[in-house]
Amino acid sequence: MRIESIRCIVCPVIVDIHVRNVEYMDVMTCLREKVPGEVFDYQVLMDCLSRYRKPRDAVTRLLSNGRIIRVKKGLYCFGQTYRRAPISREYLANLIYGPSYVSLDYALSYYGMIPERVHSITSVTINRSRSFDTPVGLFSYRTLPDSKYAIGAVLDSVSGTSFMIASPEKAIVDKVWTDRRFSGRRISDYEDYLTVDLRIERAELDRLDREALHIIAESYDSVKVNNLVSFLRRTGG
Hints:
Elements: H1 2-34, E1 39-41, H2 42-48, H3 55-64, E2 68-72, E3 75-78, H4 89-96, E4 100-102, H5 104-110, E5 121-125, E6 130-134, E7 137-143, H6 146-149, E8 153-158, E9 161-166, H7 168-178, H8 190-197, H9 202-206, H10 210-220, H11 223-234
Parallel strand pairs: 5-7
Antiparallel strand pairs: 1-3, 2-3, 4-5, 6-7, 8-9
């Protein structure tokens, strides 16, 4: 009698789990058909859950079993099992908070200008400074006024995913301008700051486009940035 009672309880549970798994597979198939990359928004997710009476409950279950990951409110990516390619954190940085583009320490590391691997994805934005600690990494944003923000970003692409990132020249200008620990009042201060504090090799500095630096510096109208450009012009390249 006990065995039969257990069967009566367990069998419907197993059937229910199986039905849910089939339904979730349908949702994931729908998402993979709609999303060419690895990142999607809330509207796409709701489209694939349109036949559910309680789509938010379904979202909670999809998150709990790791089929999808919430990067921030309204922004999702596929869980490891359903990914076709690695997630571009640079692309995510553009989406998480904007308008923005990758710059500062992460961009300098991206271009191989500094030896350290930077784990936080650093960006600049015209909005207030913010940070987002997400399941796929830490994303930080520093404010730049509109006039300083507009010049120097480029479109780059990795494995077919495009994103906005500062050019090498813009990245180093952004770093100098936002670094409150460094006053940059004297041109002579830049030797130690760039080669010792930031550990940028002289060869990397020589590769910077001086004309591009001059154009970017004009938009900053900053003694600190002008001193950077003057130092780099004096030291070759």
